[in-house]
Amino acid sequence: MTRGFIGGEKGPFGCITHRRVRGETNPRRKRSMKENIFTKKIDRRRFLKDVALTGGAVFITASPTKVFAQEGKTPIPPMEIIYYTAVAEQDDIWKLVVQDWKKLGLESKLKVANSTVVAKLCYDEHNFGDMASFSSGPSSERLDPSFYLVEYLHSKNTTLGGKNFGHYINPEYDKYCDLQGAEIDRNKRRELVWKCQEIAAKDYPVWWMAYGASIQAYNSRDWEGIWTMPGVGIASRYGTPWTFFKIKSKTKRNALRVGDTMDFNTTNLFAANDPPTQQTLGWIYDTYTKITPDLETVPWAAESWRVVNSKTVDITLRSGMKFHDGNPVTVQDVKFSWDYTKKWRFPIYNWVTDTVEKTEILDDRNVRFTLVKPHAPFIDQTLAFAIILPKHIWEKIPESVGLKNPIDWDNPKCIGSGFFKLGHYRPSEELYLVANKDHWNAPSIDGVYYRIRMSPDAMVSALVAGEVDVTGDIRLAQAKSLERYNYLKVIQAPNHRVWMARPDMRRKPFGDREFRRALYHAVDLKKIYEVVFDKTGNEGRNTGIAPIFKFWHNSKIPPVDFSIEKARKILQDAGYSWDSNGRLCFPKGS
Amino acid sequence: MKAYVIRRFIQSIIILFLITTIIFFLFRIIPSNPTAMLIDSQLSPEDRILVLAQWGLDKPLYIQYLNYIKNLLAGSFGVSFFYRKPVFDVLMETMLNTLTLMGPAMFIAFFGAIFAGSYLGWKRGKVVEKAVVTAAIFFQALPLFWIGIAALMVFSYWLGIFPTGGMRMLGHGASGLLEKYLSIDFLRHLVLPLSIASLFYMVSPLLIMRTSMLEVRGEDFLEMAVAKGFDEKTTIRHCARNALLPIVTHAGIMSGHIFGGQVLLETVFTWPGMGRALVQAVMHLDYPVAQAAFFIMAGTVVFMNFIIDILYGYLDPRIVYK
């Protein structure tokens, strides 16, 4: 039977409609459709077919993953990376890194947020997307390896609120981490600290991007004898500026004026909730030990110490010390300070008191500390932060001032025994500390003024105009703008600030060690060091212990060389593949 | 009149209450909590919970809200998380510092605008009018912080005439109020931010006054005044008084700037005022201070508008209160 048109007839609107034999191509289809569109008579079969095709196209475009999954390849979705706003270095780092990761077939979504928001997402909720990037500030209580080893990487800190929000869990690492925390012998502890770094370096739980530097400037026409301290630089309030003990004025004015971006919020240490305030109060009150610019622990209020056993430490109180009101500092004050803070449990201070079970007075110079458990950083960290309170003042607090908790006391006179006395504090404006010339290690200056909460620009302008003598941390570009002033000098002091990015290892594919390793090889650490930080600080290495910790930093850990080819090879060997669009895909069956 | 004042007063209270409520919840919807700023310290998760409890943030939101309102009705803004002392004490000194800068600035801006606007409106079409209006619009188009930075660059950095910021030199020993605010050192620090603030905030009322003058200029009573042989000065005064109403309305809005609009200016000039305290409070999520600062700003605007509404009747007797 011949297939074809067998005739035509007039439709309801006068158009010609055709009867067609099944399977035969309609030569007038185009015309017919045009007619149908204009006449609202749509070919139902054609319509359904078109809808199905369109739907398919939309499905393919919108869900490539599912379609390719049928072919056995699932592209890794764009990675969400969150970091703080207002930190120019973060932006610069990630602009470089995402370009290189793109070469691996990985897309990234950069998300920026306020620091408190990022902190909440990371620390409180452990729900920050694929990875978070930030830097840890170079405050003095972080001058011990425990902070980096335990806080960031020990599995006990994977609970909500803990800092191991990337959920790195390695029982072997935990074992060595605990051992180093309990090892009192410094050399033995170093072996354990190195071992921890070695284990973590093989697991790549964090990509350590760079180590920071304090960039500051001072007036060299008026001052000499600068002595920089890691994290502190010349005179920042992130620790004890040893400059105070050495600096000399070339003019008649012997009080140093420092520009400062930070605030000073209270004269009560137990209410001080920011490191600069806590550290400043550590100059007004005496601590038992101090950390030198060479990162050695030296005697301070404790003239000497003896490690009796792993849980017992005896200290000898320095003789002849006096509080600012003239009262002598005695072992009773020492014991009172620990008992009082244990009794009141000040949240900001509990990390100090919780290390000690009890204190005993051995004689009028010696005090014995019995620790809750062996605690290696006790001398270097705990005793460098713990303060001696004047018993004759604090024993009456809070009752004598009509309060319920000493934390609410404003401590107006702030009597301590430290090398500085409180001069005055003008909110949001100025802090003045007067040198305690009766101190056994009195500052070489008469006092120090801090103009607080200045912007870095204002600090630079004030330095040029001679309104301040020293700046806090400034940006590199600002430092360069000062080169033309021959009476100003810029210092770049490497510190223990660590710039890092850490993935959430609970999320695929970040739980895969090879994936993390490959991505780290695709981070150009040298370029970050040279371009972003202009060769200040130190180039990133595969450990959180910065190179300034010469004793603790494990320099034997091999560097992570930057090589896209190597990264691709690692991924390939681990079963990752690329789709036709060059996108990196999960290993088959993962 | 009495009924109107009472009604208007109640309205103001309701507005203030609504603003207070919005401010309270606005801070709570930020996906963070104030202990996030304590992360930098060695605070353990357990101790952070302890801190939250001390700050009363462990309680349900509605209890926190009720406590906040209860404190507010008792005249207390609570205790600052960051400074650990009553918010009033925290803000008192910074408020005074702000007032010493913005009070005179607003005074100069307002009265300067009245006089200059009246004159310009009267001199319409003259070169002086064209020049000043062009300059004013240009000045208004620039961001305040940029003007501040540029002024610092020129007068402090290059010419070295004025200090680069702050309210007094470091170590200035003034203790008493008079000594603090009337010393030469203070005035030297005041000149630059005060000039910038005065000029910046003068532009809007100046243009309003000028426009208002142009509208009133065509009125019959002015032609009558001219026909009577009044001199130009008297005629301008008559015209200006009738043109005042819009600018008085604007004064209510301007009053908000006394505490609120100077945040950028204080930051640029390192002026230890309430604006910087507010920025600090917001950055540290110091809810009590931030809430109090916003409350004071809102309260100033609401109160000033209330006063101005009442003043209308005195300024323009044609207005009848119902």
Characteristics of this structure?
heterodimer, A: alpha+beta, six-stranded mixed beta sheet, B: 322 residues, mainly alpha, 13 helices, 0% strand, globular
Structure description:
The complex is a heterodimer of chains A (590) and B (322). By secondary structure, chain A is an alpha+beta fold. Chain A is 30% helix and 20% strand. In chain A, the strands form seven sheets. Chain A has a six-stranded mixed sheet with strand order 4-3-5-19-6-20. In chain A, strands 9-18-17-16 form a four-stranded mixed sheet. A four-stranded antiparallel sheet of chain A has the order 12-13-15-14, with helices on one face. In chain B, 74% of the residues lie in helices and 0% in strands.
Mean pLDDT of chain B: 86
Instruction: Give the largest interface.
Output: A-B, 54 and 55 residues
Judged by helices, strands and strand pairing, the structural class of chain A is alpha+beta
- The end-to-end distance of chain A, rounded to whole angstroms, is 57 Å
Protein structure class of chain B = mainly alpha
Question: What is the H-and-E element order of chain B?
Answer: HHHHHHHHHHHHH
What's the Cα radius of gyration of chain B?
A: 24 Å
- Coarse morphology of chain A: globular
Q: Please give the number of β-strands of chain B.
A: 0
| Oligomeric state as shown | heterodimer
Task: Name the overall outline of chain B.
Answer: globular
